[in-house]
Every structure is written in C-alpha cells, then in structure tokens.
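Morning!

This is the sequence you dropped in the shared folder:
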Amino acid sequence: MEDPIKTAKDSIDLVSDLIKVAGDNPQVREAGANLGQAALTISKTINNALLPLAAVNFAFDKARRYYSEHFQADITDKTKAIPLEHLTEPKASLAGPALQGLAFTHEEPNLKDMYLSLLASAMDDRNSSITHPAFVEIIKQLEGDEARLLRIILRTLSALPIVEIREATSGQQGWRELARHLMDLRDTKTKEPVENPNQAAMVDNWIRLGLVVVTYNKFLIGENAYDWVETRPEFARFKAERETESNKLSFQRGCISRTAFGHKFAVAVGLLNELIEVDATESPAD
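The structure's back. Tokens below.
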C-alpha cells in the first residue's frame, strides 16, 4: 500500500514540473494555474495532517479566541488552591500536547475540564508522581459523551454491575450474545432509563486504555444489584422480538471497576479531588 504522504508530495513535485514547462502558451499557463491551485490544496492538506500544533499557534479562530480571552481565567481557577511554594512550570512533554488537545476540545465541557485539571496537576510539584504525558493521549481518545459516563465510573469506589444479554435455543449447546456491557443508565433529572447505542464500544475503549476492567466471572452479591436488568428497554425489546418457546433470553451478571491506572488518571484529571460514592444508575443528561 502506497504511503499517502509520499504520494501527495510526489504530486506537488509533478505539478511544479508541469508549471515550469508551461512557457508562454496562454492555454498552458491557465492549465498550469489550475494545477498550481491543486498543488496548494494538496500542500495545505499535508500541512494540516503533519502540523496539528498549528491550532495552538492560533491558526484557528476559535482556538485563538479561547486562548486570548478565556484560558487565563480557566487555568487560574484550576490552580488557585495550589500553594505558591508548590506552583511550578509544567513539563513541556505534558503541557504541549495538553494545550494542543485543549485547542480542539475547549467547546466540549467534559474534555476541556480534564485537560485543564491535568495541566493544573502538572503545575503542582506535589503531584509529580501522578501526572504522566500518556494521560493526554487518553483524553484525546475520548469523546465528550463518553467522558461524562466515564466520570461516574472512575469516581465510584466499588465495582458496578454490568451484564451481557444472551439468547439460548432449546436443544442446542451454547448461547448467542445479543448485547454486551449493558449498564443501568438513567437520566439524572427524570430517573428514566437512557439508551446509548455506543455504550458497549465505550466500555471496550476504556478497557483498551487500561482505565477499567470488566469481568463476567465475578458479580456483585447485593440482593437487588441486578434487579434493573429485566426492566431495561433493551431487554424488553429483545424479549418481544426474539423470545419464543424454543428461544429463551437470559443475562450474565458481571462487574466493572476502575484499575489502579484508572485511579491514577482520575486523580490527575481532577475527578478524585474529593473521593465520593456515586449513584451508579445515573447518567448525566444532555
């Protein structure tokens, strides 16, 4: 497979050669001008792909306005509790990527808050053992919506219930997975169930990033820990659509909990300044 960057650069070289041989022919000159515009477009594409720090260098209007009008107040608010004797300049290996990420996400409150909190942690010399440049990359691989749910998971002290919905057919061995990583998400205001079609992928992403661990070999022993499952709209829908005399629905109990790495990340991005128990059934409303 060809390298797209090399292909684009070769295209620019070719365009340059064509323009050189255009001579005085008006038609050729016009063609050369068109090719020149194409080369400019390709060049911009390469620059945008290879130089994302342009956002921090104020290449984008929204980022420029944020850094010139709001950033100072935001970071001042985040660092106001740090004693002066512990205030230090953050390492460039963390501050640079964090500022770049903030330039792209300052309009998404949950991600913005994570970046600002991480910068503040890096400016407190008492936190040298908990801040790591890898945390910037973790935030970059989160979406605003999943950051809201992840906030709840990482701030919860104990493991939380999670299930797989399964279908078994009479006379056949094994079962078919219909839904995985299902949790009892509810609107914080109405307390009504909230469905999120991306929930399973989100949990897989957190597992991949090393923030949480999920197991279906262990489960919570609380008497009512899984009473919510059969009242979920997902379970009711599968039951109505698929369950017959020969096909039966069930669910496998499991639990999700943060890892030691996830705990360290949560502290660094300001989620665990005050360690509290959180109602695991709630999902922040839009």
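Headline: The mean pLDDT is 78.

More detail when I'm at my desk.
O.
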